[in-house]
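Appendix B. One record, verbatim.
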Amino acid sequence: MKKKQVFNLILLLAAIFAYIILFIINKHIFYISIHYFWHIFLRVFYALIIVFVFIFLTNLFISPKSVIKYLGKESGIKGWWISVIAGIISTGSIYLWYPLLKELKEMGMRKGLIAVFLYNRAVKIPILPVMVYYFGWLYTLILTFYMVVFSVILGLIMEKVS
């Protein structure tokens, strides 16, 4: 077993042990805790399924060669645009995207492009009309433009420091 797998197993066993102790000490709090866990699990379950489907489809249809071509070191401006657009149109909780980004990184995706993707998740198309309503179209346009530009700057910095 790898060191990380051993750590994960120990963490799982510690959590199970803590729940057993909690059950012995205070069954009411144990049931509240299990209910809360189940409630959160159900809220996240469908998003997890979607992310795992994306990971499956990525592994099925996207080869490391194509990742290197479009998102690797030689991707050029096309890679930056793909990361910007993918970040803007991505939905769901950010932490659910981490496994997919890890897979893409292992296939050869540049760290700067990962940073650009994550940064551009802040630009949300469904929220833009609300921003226009509250702040005006000029403010929304300038803010969105700066967010995209600075995401690329941040991505370039990330590539230099990592």
